[in-house]
Design brief:
By secondary structure, this protein is an all-alpha fold. It has a domain at 1-45. Helix content is 64%, strand content 0%. The radius of gyration is 24 Å and the shape is rod-shaped.
Length: 70
């Protein structure tokens, strides 16, 4: 029953013409969904990791403005 609900949640349909492909379509769509989730997690982890990343090598905008105006 859970597999049937998952197939319909991913957009699977019950048709005599395509009934034999429903499981394959479910597997492919699940893989695509998992790659989206992994990609989004990696992007968010990179943003969080570098959120307040301040190093001495970086130049702030105040320092840059003072150099340009001098």
């Amino acid at each position: 029953m859970l597999l049937t609900v998952w197939k319909y949640a991913l957009g699977s349909f019950h048709d005599d013409k395509t009934k034999k492909y429903d499981n394959a379509v479910c597997i492919i769509r699940t893989c695509i969904l998992l790659t989206y989730i992994v990609t989004n997690t990696v992007i968010c982890a990179g943003v969080v990791r570098h959120w307040n990343d301040s190093t001495k090598d970086s130049v702030s905008s105040v320092e840059l403005v003072s150099v340009v105006t001098e």
